[in-house]
Amino acid sequence: MTLDSTAQLPRLPLLADRKVAMVHEWFGATGGSEAVFLAIADLLPHAERLVLWADEGVPTEQLRLSQSWMSRTPLKQSKALALPAMPLVWRTLTNRKFDVVISSSHAFAHTVKLGDPAHTRHLSYIHSPARYVWSPDFDGRGSHPALKVPRKMLQAADLRLSRHVHAYAANSREVQGRIKRFWNRDSVVVNPPVDTAYFGNAPQADQYQSRDYLLGIGRWIPYKNFDLIVEIADAAGLPLVIAGSGPEEERLRKLAATKQVHIHFEVRPERDRLRQLYWGARALLFPAHEDFGIIPVEAQACGTPVLGLRRGGLLETVVDGETGFLLDGLDPAPYAAALHRLGELSRYRIQQHAGGFSADRFADRIARWIDHAAR
Could you tell me which of 214, 21, 35, 221 has the C-alpha nearest to residue 131? Predict the structure, then answer.
C-alpha cells in the first residue's frame, strides 16, 4: 500500500464504529515505544488500552491503562525473568473480544489474541522483534550460552503465537528487514513520531549558544558505546557533555577522569534542559546500531549535526554529508577527523530534514495504514 498518497485522509477518530483494543508491553515512565503507543491512541480515543504492567510513576488512570495480572506479581521487577511468561500472559489477558486489535510490540505483545482471527483484525506496530530472543548480539540479556535452548523455544513460540496477525508496520527499514528475516512476514515502514516542533523552536537564548562542546545522549548501557564517545572527544580535544542515566555510569565516570578534555555528566535532564543541550552542542556523537533512533532526529531538529555509525536506523535519519557524517567501525580517529568537516553542513538543511519525522507526519501515515489494514 502507498502511505504517502494524495487520497483523502481517513476520518477521525479512526474506527469509531468498531470495538478496538490497543496493546503495549510494559509501560515505562519515559520511552520511545510508549510515545508511539500514545500517539496512536490519540487517533483512537475510544480504544481500550491494555498493558502487562506500568512502572512506578506512570499515571495509569490519566492514561487509561488497564494492567494485566502480571502487574501484581514480582515478575514486574525483572523484565528478563518476566520474558518467558509473557506469551502466556498475553493469551490470558482477557476473555473479551474486539473487532480490531492494534499492538505496539518490542517483545511479545503481537502474540495477544483477543478474538477469532476470522472476525478480529490484528494490526501490529513493531519497534523490533525481541532483541534478546532474535538478536542476542544486540542485547546481552539473551546472549548467555545457557539461554540458547530457551531462546530457541521462545523463537518457536513467537512464530506460532503470532500467525493471526493480519498486518505489520515497522518503525524503520532496519526493523522491516528483521520482520522479513525472522518471521517471513511483509510490513510497511512508518517511522515513529518525533516532537520536532518542540525541539526546533527553542527560546532565543538557547538558539544563540556558542556550540563549543560535543554531546552524547542516551541510556548508559554497553551497546550505546559511550566509552567510544569519550574516546572521540578526547581524540578531538573538545569538551563533552554526556546526558542520560544507566548502569554504566560509574565505569564511564572513571574513564572520563583519565582524559585531558573536560567531560560533564548530566543525569536525567528534564526536557527543557535536554533541548538546551542539543542547541548548545557542536555535534551529537551517536556511534550505536539502533533500530531507529529518536535522539539523532531531535538533535537535527535543533540544527545539530550527527556523527554516527553507518548502520541501522541512522541510514534513514541522517543524510551522510548533508545532516551529519556516517562512519564505519568503532575507531575514534575517523570520528574525530570528521568533526573538522562540520563547516560543510547547513544547519537550515539539517533542521529541514528533521521535519520529515514530525509527529504530524507520523499521524498521517499511521492513520492511513490503520484505515487500510483494518478493513
Answer: 221
Strand partners, 100: 20, 121
Residue 16 region by backbone torsions, left for phi larger than 0, else alpha for psi between -120 and 50, else beta:
alpha
* CATH number of the domain bearing residue 50: 3.40.50
Q: Amino acid identity of 336?
A: A
Task: State how many domains the chain has.
Answer: 2
How far, in Å, are 44, 193, 355, 361 from residue 173 at the CA level? Answer: 26, 15, 19, 17
Of 286, 348, 336, which Cα lies nearest the Cα of 311?
A: 286
Does the pTM surpass 0.85? The reply is yes
Write the pLDDT tens digit of every residue in 72-127: 999 888 877 787 888 888 888 777 899 999 999 999 999 999 999 999 999 999 99
- Answer yes or no: do 111 and 236 share one domain: no
Could you tell me if residue 10 is inside a domain?
Answer: no
DSSP state of 101: E
3-state secondary structure of 362: helix
Q: Please, which residues have CB within 8 angstroms of residue 365's CB and are 6 or more apart in sequence?
A: 3, 4, 190, 191
Please write the tens of the pLDDT for every residue from 165-180.
Answer: 999 999 999 999 999 9
Q: What is the DSSP letter of 9?
A: P
- Burial readout 221-255 (b: 16 or more C-beta within 10 A, e: otherwise): beebbbbbbbbbbbbbebebbbbbeeebeeebeeb
Both 265 and 202 in one domain: the answer is yes
Angle between helices 226-236 and 249-256 in degrees, nearest 10 = 20
